[in-house]
Specification:
single chain; alpha+beta
Length: 546
């Protein structure tokens, strides 16, 4: 059965803040340019996970009347607190003078998923076609090597590769230009970076894994707009952490924890670090008597400008966190992603409306626009933050970052580099202390499977596993003896297990149906043996308010 095809001027992969902002900007500039957005989530916002405190700078540029349009930025930040946790029972308040990245005057506590749903409404009202539930599974190329578009994944393929009765081949979406806005570690973006050598001369990209839970708490403990950031305990094992507690609307709070994936001890379990952090007296006091209503996890990109690849190639662009636009020092990426999408929209409009315009060019003007924008200025200012933390740790590194930012305003005449990729930082288990985490109490802290249940994750069981291995022998023959197979611990969803049979033989088991699409395995596997590919459309988490 042959695949059908559709033609557009621009195809955008991913309905996140970058992709939707690109779509909106293009249609603002021209009603004649046809734009299609494909989204692998069951609905727009289903796979979006972010803290989130949002800087409204970009949304105000895209829609100056965003308030009148009803954008869901409903909770202005009313108070900032920063704490250094030095034990489970104590914390030291850090003056904002020493935490310049955490000034949030004028920002809003939001659900980024709901912001994306609103952006999709604006885009559709302007004539953008949006197709949720269709995963972009393959990049298509023209004979000259330029990107032709994408193909969505086939539906109705059984685990053994046979076609079920409901089999339906994917659709080819052809475009003059294709924009890849898949978020952190986009699997097509990863392929494009390799194919076109877009990261030549760059530092390796760096990542963290971020967790988020939404709790409904006692009304007497709730203060809409209160924003708390913490560091320190329990990350006393060579890991640097950042954590947050945001008071949103309706007596709800969002709590979260970020572990950089540059850690070296294979027995670190980022999920359990998060659950342990919730037991700190300053956090637990908010959660006691409350109800946990959502859970999710997602890798985040934090390499900074040193790691940002070339963002254009023949026939397409990388935007948002496919390119690495998160400002990790501020823990903010929504406004930066939106701005990158808007700059892409400007670039595409100019290319498509120029006299004698032709498809498939390498739009290097995108980089010129990017480098001349406030977005580049902001990311350059904070460029040394991540390398300082990697090199000197959470406490000393943060102190040096204050000198860089608080005193020199990010204008030190040098740029620090971090040349070691995150997957290469693990040390052999025999050389590292074993970490024993407290068992969850089922009240404040929980296990992985009950958490995955709250993410509404679902995959069609009888389909090919989307967590693929280059070499099926590596987990048991290499990773297990050397690192006690760290996939058992870095995965936040219980996907990977070492199962011991009655005979004593061990087996590496992949529970792909649990996958929350965080991409951590694709990033942290020390052998780079795990490759995340798209499952059947509609699969994965379904975050209602994240």
């Amino acid at each position: 059965m042959e695949r059908e095809s559709m033609e557009f001027d621009v195809v955008i992969v991913g309905a996140g803040p970058a992709g939707l902002s690109a779509a909106c900007r293009i249609r603002q500039l021209s009603e004649d340019i046809t734009v299609c957005v494909v989204e692998k989530g069951a609905e727009v916002g289903a796979h979006i996970l972010s803290g989130a405190v949002m800087d409204p700078k970009a949304i105000a540029e895209l829609f100056p009347d965003w308030k009148e349009r009803g954008a869901p930025l409903n909770v202005p930040v009313t108070e900032d607190k920063v704490m250094l946790m030095n034990s489970q029972s104590s914390a030291i308040g850090v003056p904002l003078l020493f935490a310049p990245g955490f000034h949030n005057d004028g920002n809003y506590v939001v659900s980024l998923g709901n912001v994306c749903r609103w952006l999709a409404e604006q885009a559709e009202a302007m004539g953008v076609e949006i197709y949720p539930g269709f995963a972009a599974a393959e990049v298509l190329y023209n004979d000259d090597g330029s990107v032709k578009g994408i193909a969505t994944g086939d539906m109705g393929v059984a685990a053994d590769g046979s076609h079920k009765d409901a089999y339906m081949p994917g659709m080819e979406l052809h475009a003059k230009y294709t924009v890849f806005s898949e978020g952190c570690r986009g699997h097509l973006g990863k392929q494009l970076i390799e194919k076109f050598n877009l990261d030549e001369g760059c530092d390796p990209q760096h990542y963290g894994i971020g967790f988020k839970e939404i709790w409904e708490i006692d009304e007497s403990k709730h203060k809409a707009g209160l924003v708390i950031h913490t560091t320190g305990w329990p990350a006393s094992k060579g890991t640097a952490s950042g954590s947050y507690l945001y008071h949103s609307e309706g007596n709800q709070i969002a709590i979260g924890y970020v572990v950089p994936l540059s850690y070296d001890n294979p027995s670190v379990s980022p999920f359990d670090e998060f659950q342990q952090w919730k037991q700190h007296e300053k956090i637990k006091s908010y959660l006691e008597g409350g109800t946990r209503i959502s859970y999710g996890a997602r890798a985040l990109i934090k390499g900074g400008p040193q790691s940002r690849p070339k963002m254009s190639f023949p026939g397409g662009l990388l935007v948002g966190d496919d390119a690495g636009t998160l400002n990790f020092a501020r823990i903010k990426g929504s406004h930066t992603a939106m701005k990158s999408g808007m700059l892409a929209g400007d670039t595409l409009h100019a290319a498509l409306t120029a006299e004698g315009a032709s498809a498939g060019a390498d739009l290097v003007d995108y980089a010129n626009r990017f480098n001349g924008s406030w977005l580049n200025d902001e990311l350059q200012k904070w460029r040394n933050f991540g390398p300082l933390l990697h090199k000197f740790g959470g406490i000393i590194g943060a102190g040096l970052a204050f000198i860089d930012q608080g005193i020199f305003q990010g204008k030190l005449p040098f740029t620090l580099r971090d040349k070691t990729p995150d997957y290469a930082t693990l040390k052999p288990s025999a050389d590292m202390p074993t970490i024993e985490y407290p068992k969850p109490d089922g009240v404040i802290s929980f296990d992985k499977l009950s958490s995955v249940f709250l993410s509404n994750t679902n995959h069609e069981e009888d389909q090919p596993c989307h967590l693929t291995l280059k070499d099926a022998d590596i987990p048991l023959q290499k990773n297990l003896p050397m690192y006690d197979e760290p996939a058992q611990r870095y995965c936040p969803a219980g996907v990977y297990e070492i199962v011991e049979e009655a005979s004593g033989e061990k087996r590496f088991q992949i529970n792909g149906q649990n996958c929350v699409h965080c991409k951590t395995c694709d990033i942290k596997d020390p052998a780079q043996n795990i490759v995340w590919v798209t499952p059947e459309g509609l699969g994965g988490p379904n975050y209602p308010n994240m």
